[in-house]
Amino acid sequence: MALDYRKCAEEIAKYIGGGSNVISAAHCATRLRLVIADNSKIDKKALEDVEGVKGMFESNGQLQLIIGTGTVNKVYDEFLAVTGVSAATKADVKAAAASKMPWWKKILKTPGDIFVPILPAIVASGLMMGIVEAIPKFAPAFGNTGWFAFLDLVANTAFALLPVLVAISAARVFGGNVFLAAVIGLMMVHPALLNAWNAGSVQQVAVFFGKPLPLDAVQNAINGLSPELASQIPAGYLAMFDTSNGVSASVINSLPSDVANGIWGTLNSSLTVADIGGISKFMLFGSYGISQVGYQGHVIPVILAIFCMSKIEKFLHKVVPEMIDLFVTPLVTVVVTALLTFTIIGPVFSLLENYVLIGAKWLASTPYTSWIMGAIYPWTVFLGLHHMYNVIEAGMIAQTGLNTWMPIASAANFAQFGACLAVAVKVKNAKTKAVALPASLSASLGITEPAIFGVNYRFMKPFLCGMAGGAVGALFGALFKLGAPVYGVTGIPAIPAVNNIPLYLVELLISAGVAFVLTLFIWKEEKPEEKAKEPEPEKAPELPTVSVIRCAAGTVMQPVKGNVIAREAIPDDTFASGVLGDGVGIEPEDELVVAPFDGTISSVAESRHAIGIEANGMEMLIHVGVDTVNMQGDGFECLVKEGDEVKLGQPLIRFSREKIKAAGYSDTVAVLLTNSDDLEGVECGAK
Amino acid sequence: MKSFEYTITDPVGIHARPAGVLVKEIKKYASTVTVNKGEKSVNALKLMALMGMGIKQGDTIRVDVEGADEENAAAEIEAFFKANL
Lengths: 687, 85
Description:
Distance between the termini of chain A: 60 Å
Structural class of chain A: alpha+beta
Strand content of chain B: 25-35%
Shape of chain A: elongated
Number of strands of chain A: 19
Radius of gyration of chain A: 33 Å
Number of strands of chain B: 4
Largest sheet of chain A: 7 strands, antiparallel
Number of helices of chain A: 25
CATH topology of chain B: Histidine-containing Protein, Chain: A
Oligomer: heterodimer
Distance between the termini of chain B: 22 Å
Strand order of the largest sheet of chain B: 1-4-2-3
Strand content of chain A: 5-15%
Shape of chain B: globular
Helix content of chain A: 40-55%
CATH class of chain B: Alpha Beta
Order of helices and strands of chain B: EHEEHEH
Largest interface: A-B, 23 and 17 residues
């Protein structure tokens, strides 16, 4: 028979001395973990006999009840309901902290939140990719080995299929189904779509879509081959060309690979993707189609897609009748999200990409503007737009033989390395350190995503310091006309290729140095959120030391930290007039109301902003804010319930001053003895 | 004993401020005033108990007035409810 969770919880509550004896309650996979105020109230024998409790022991100041996987969470929920104890989990505290943030901060924070869980994957891959791709630059022979090909596959998996990881993590953040999100992520890198990294390459587009190439361009390319390569072209080859429809890519690839590569090299620089008819489209709405390009390496379009998906899914769960929900909701969610992604989010992004590309080209053209590119470069990495820069680099090499884009990108990337390294050096949090170090290494090899998403952007200031370093380094590189005849590499792996190695090293040093020093000085490690926001006052209540009301029946201690004002000064006529009894006002500096004396909770307002306590004939009302009843509980958390016995200093209500302010009310706390007329010798004021 | 029923129209119900003015009004009379909602009943002079009933807009309560001046008090208190709550 299934366990009666409610009954189990009620019995546990009974034998531990009631909800008021619980300081905090949490649970792990199998155990209910309780911190108990007075252990003498526990009836251990009875507890062990409760149906559902499989065992019991005390450890680390916790009373741990073994309940079992899958059941403990249900008993826990009931336990909270029965005892009125609030679940102060880390997640709650974090969520509460997040809900106080302005919207733009939440938006800025979201990519970081999504990236933190997938950091192990991208840090490992980034570092490995950097190393694997760097080796052939120093030892070209390695590039032709099976090891290289295999390691490259292992290393770039996470990056090539990044949208899948991002989609899953985003679904967890936005509350969507992770499997549906994985489908959307996979769809965005579907093998039937052209790899986004290849979208700028004439060769790749021609091969992938079987686009024919203009005859004259191919003939020019063949004519431009060195005599040695040209001699390898079989007799009668030119006769294979279909002069009416152009040359198919497979015809070129049928040549020996050196020859084919030579021809493609020329075609890549002499033609554009548009010249061969552009990327194929799925024709959906008349003449409007969507490009058959994937989203490899992209982040933001994926996050947007999963955000929409989660909203759609939640909406459908609400409106679709339960009987057909299981197949209708996932189906509609996937189809609608896919349409939105490929028809709106995707195209908007490719438009943006084009503008960024044009802008980047222009900025990189002179030393006087290249520093701007060095500064904003990391933002384009953040947006996943940096994969298109190969096009700019290839264009430069075709025109001048020198890739002057590389020093800009190197400066920007190396500056992120410097900033990330500074974080690694300065940070005390072991977890952050463990991420920052490999992330910075990977950045030095040209793979900056782990450093940007995992560290610098998350803390923001290192990211900005990195922008500064990138600007300085890019300016230096441009002034000294640094460049390389190759493309696709930055940072350390680019060293063997540059035209002036010593100056290039200076550039790297400047970029990283500026970012490192700035970060070291400007960035300060925030206190770990959980520790700062989880003061656990329940564990060690700080007893109030100031009394605010004294009378023959007892003393009322100050229930909220802050400035004590006269009752008459409370900004509300009813309180000020004394209709509700004599007392004081407090302008709070803190957000916690604690019990002003040992007593019994006589009433808790449904909207959680006011509480009554009785003891020894004193009837006390603590009312947080003026007119806050209209907030209907939003921003208030009541930690006790009617009938609870409370001790001096015990937390009663937690409230958000920010929310009270946002609602337009005064946050003055009224502390009133409602029956002061019946009490003798009432004296008010802080003492 | 005099009784009357009344349905609360104040949007916040009998919360701190309305409860305060109600207690003040009731103190004027010698009669004992009891507010009943469902099975719960409280002495209307006890502010905290009154607030603890959680009386909301739309709730119907019964008010019992018992004592020397109940005639007059009941009428006055009912008028007070209509005017303020």
